[in-house]
Design goal:
- By secondary structure, this protein is α/β, with parallel strands linked by helices.
- It has 2 domains: 230 residues, TIM Barrel, CATH 3.20.20; 66 residues, Alpha-Beta Complex (Type Iii Antifreeze Protein Isoform Hplc 12).
- 31% of the residues lie in helices and 16% in strands.
- β1 and β2 form a beta hairpin.
- α1 runs parallel beside α10 and α6 packs parallel to α7.
- The longest helix has 18 residues.
Length: 350
């Protein structure tokens, strides 16, 4: 699987996971809060921050019929009108340049998810390093074509998509000139449960499309993301908030700064732990082999005396005969006097 370059970062199995802090609408349309979130993400060690580029009108219609009201009773946004929710969660276009530049000054990449073709044109004026396609937009092939035609890398969440729908999205991107694609496993519920995450899809997704893969994680906590890295994810996207208790449209399933820092630390450990198929111990374990068990003389033995469980014992360290020879040395006769504490060897008995 070839590595992908996004800005100064290389995404691939031999590199630390690429961690994206998704600001979403957790800034509550307070610019200073948004800037503080960027600052906190940098301090936690995130590689990138991501915005969402849309207006309420580019997302939906300002209509209050049942089609445009969130009906699901288990939704965080039950009863809200789509237009009103998106108006509340949108990141103002005039913030983008300021937040991108601030993130860059702190050493992070900054990019966004465009939700319509005009948003791509706008983001192009800001020279974003890549594009992210949200899971709900994966079937919007004209949008994918537009973003891919810029020639920049694309990160696409697969969410509810069937294998054939993912294939259509990938083929559309490639046909438009994009070869650097990352596919993110994603469960499009908010929050998502670990039981519905199905991380086993990650290696299958990688084999099916020969792309880098990752996880857009809507579960609470960091455990699922850490497990995803162990399954082969090279990108992790997590929603981010300064303080869950202070609210924010996605606060319920977002990470606070100390959790984001822990996510970065633990995903790096997870990646390093994968290694290769290894049996027989590593070089680092070589010294530990000394403390395996072996056969020792446990009490003084006179020349000609019979060896057995009364004067032999299997103990640590491993300088005597291996325990598998225990049956073979029983009832043998000592060739010489053997003091207690002597590691048993073939030369000591007949």
């Amino acid at each position: 699987m070839k590595d992908i370059k996004i800005g100064r970062h290389t995404i691939g199995s031999e590199h630390a996971p690429f961690i994206i802090a998704e600001l979403s609408g957790n800034h509550s349309q307070n610019f200073e809060l948004a800037k503080s979130m960027v600052d906190a993400a940098a301090q936690a060690g995130a590689d990138a921050i991501k915005l969402q580029t849309y207006t309420a009108d580019s997302m939906t219609l300002n209509v209050n019929t049942s089609d445009f009201i969130i009906q699901e009773e288990d939704s965080l946004w039950h009863g809200e009108a789509l237009h009103g929710l998106y108006a509340k969660a949108a990141t103002p276009y005039e913030w983008h340049k300021l937040l991108f530049e601030y993130a860059n000054s702190l050493g992070m990449l900054a990019f966004s998810s465009p939700f319509d073709e005009d948003a791509v044109d706008f983001l192009e004026t800001l020279h974003v390093p890549c594009y992210k396609i949200a899971s709900f937009e994966l079937t919007d092939l004209p949008l994918i074509n537009k973003a891919a035609s810029t020639g920049k890398p694309m990160i696409m969440s697969t969410g509810m998509a069937t294998l054939s729908e993912i294939e259509e999205a990938v083929n559309t991107a490639k046909a438009a000139g994009c070869e650097e694609i990352v596919l993110l496993k994603c469960t499009s519920t908010y929050p998502a449960s670990p039981e519905n995450t199905n991380l086993a899809t990650i290696p299958h997704l990688q084999r099916a499309f020969s792309t880098q893969v990752g996880l857009s994680d809507h579960t609470r906590g960091i455990g699922v993301s850490v497990a995803a890295v162990a399954m082969g994810a090279s990108v992790i996207e997590k929603h981010f908030v300064l303080d869950r208790n202070a609210g924010g449209v996605d606060a319920e399933f977002s990470l606070e700064p100390h959790e984001l820092a822990l996510l970065i630390e633990e995903t790096q450990r997870a990646r390093k732990s994968i290694g290769n198929v290894c049996y027989g111990g590593t070089v680092a374990e070589e010294k530990s082999k000394h403390y395996r068990r072996s056969i020792f003389v446990s009490s003084d033995i006179k020349q000609g005396e019979t060896l057995g469980k009364d004067n032999l014992k299997i103990v640590r360290p491993a300088t005597g005969l291996k325990p598998k020879h225990w049956g073979s040395v029983q009832q043998k006769h000592a060739k010489q006097d053997i003091p207690a504490g002597t590691p048993l060897s073939w030369e000591l008995f007949e």
